[in-house]
Design goal:
The protein has 399 residues and is an alpha/beta fold. It folds into three domains: 70 residues; 268 residues, Rossmann fold (3-Layer(aba) Sandwich), CATH 3.40.50; 30 residues, no CATH class. It is 46% helix and 15% strand. β1 and β2 form a beta hairpin. α1 runs antiparallel to α3 and α7 runs parallel beside α10.
Amino acid sequence: MESILVMYLILVVIGAVLWVWAIVDALVRPDAQWREADQSKQLWVIVVILIGGLGAVLYFLIARPKLKMAAAGHGPGSSTAAKLPSPLADPATRRELMSTVEAVPGSSKPDTILDVDHIVRHFGGITAVDVGHLEVQRGIITALIGPNGAGKTTFFNLITGFDRPSSAGQGAHWSFDGRTLDRTSASRVARSGMVRTFQLTKALSRMTVMDNMMLGAQNQIGEGLGQSLLRPIWSDQEKQVETKALELLDRFSLLEKRTDYAGSLSGGQRKLLEMARALMSDPKMIMLDEPMAGVNPALTQSLLGHIQSLRDEGMTVLFVEHDMHVVRHISDWVVVMAEGKIVAEGAADEVMSNQAVIDAYLGAHHDTDLGDDALLTDETLEKLAEEVAEEDAEREEQP
């Protein structure tokens, strides 16, 4: 393969040099002399120009796409076999790592892969997201929890390029694996290695399961208009993509469904398909928006196992979930959102006993029995009114 690429490049260089020489020679020599030149020499010049042009065409249609594919790690020979376990596959190692992190909102992490600062999103007079600072640790499973309407999905949309922050250009900044994504489209976010699934699955219903999978692979040579006409230059890569898709379908127990239309799958199977399709791009971090929603208990256990195996292979996982049993079972770190803000961070057991988290889910006065006649005194009512007034004043003071 390397020798072929070298040959293409040599053709381009030689052809370009001779092409320039022929043009300069034609411009310098008087028109009369050029007309009197030997016909064979003129033919030779034309052949040189054609060689240079052919070399350029071959380079841009074949060599350049394959070089880009190899640089991105999707070239021939890339394996889809099981990866070596990550050092963080060991639970004790993960606990030791995260024990050094302070359990407060916006805490600094030892090895941050996603860094978010001052992301705000307004919808009219409502502030849906107001995240001052958040860091996501590389190589672990981080759960993003919070009551309905807390802003979790909106936050996902903002950092993956599906929505634009109201604070854009006013301090909003986020980066992934050292790369700034402030003004990046959703497609470029995915190419950077951060992919997501959706709360409502986005499978292409009128395409087969296999076609859905193959669309997820990146840097496919045949996607270019010119290259698509030349099957020999992309057929090898097409076979590699197909092999990888079949391996992932087998891993997610969807191999028998590969020829079925995606629209015929159950809700749980669509969740599996969406996760498998996301893995076709070899991401560094996968973001799952309520992966267990609407999934039957049998498939839930399968999904949990797949998420944990991704972490054990070294991938970072950030997922939104309402099932606290799932959060306790697989998460290494938990981030809590309420009213668009990060209100707590920490290990699952610590977070779930946090008073701010309990208030976010159940309300600040959840432990007050309003049916108790003893509370119907002027003093108690005045105290409750003062607390409500203080909470309203705090909200009004917030920008």
